[in-house]
Amino acid sequence: MARDRDRSAREFIWQKVPKVSRAREIVIDGETWVRILRVKVFGSLASVESKAGAWTLKRVGWFRTRISIRAAGTETDLAIFTPSWAWFGSSGALQFEGGSTYFWGPTKSYGREHSIAGPDRNPLLRFRGGPGKCRMAFVSSSPEPRLPLLAALGYYLIQLTDEDAGVIAAIAGAAAAG
To answer: Which pTM was predicted?
Structure first.
């Protein structure tokens, strides 16, 4: 329990994995706690690895997108994240097959900070910054076996939101030039 209190008092940076492109990880006490790898340059498939398990994350759908979460190597959805808006991941709900629901949303204006809250709506993890320099903090010291997966999902949502903003800016620029 003392280790949990120590962990909740610190921020961790999603850092690049040496010699592995498109991969980020959280390192705690010198060990990889969770790692996320974007599998392809184009596309949304990501793999997540931690001591708690391995999963895949993939955005599916076009206008009403959602994120499918599966245990690695399976074809059955373990959970679905549904954004509150058409495709932006600035807020939404993560529904697990067994009925547990977690919530993603902004905690400060302009999307500078987000959190993942548990089924009781109490924050579990807080994220600050963009994909280039994202900081994560443990808000709660209560035991939650899904924390590595939730942490990876939070970072993944930050990546997708950043990519979507870039695409929208490019389309707007092209429309203004044309």
So the answer is: 0.84
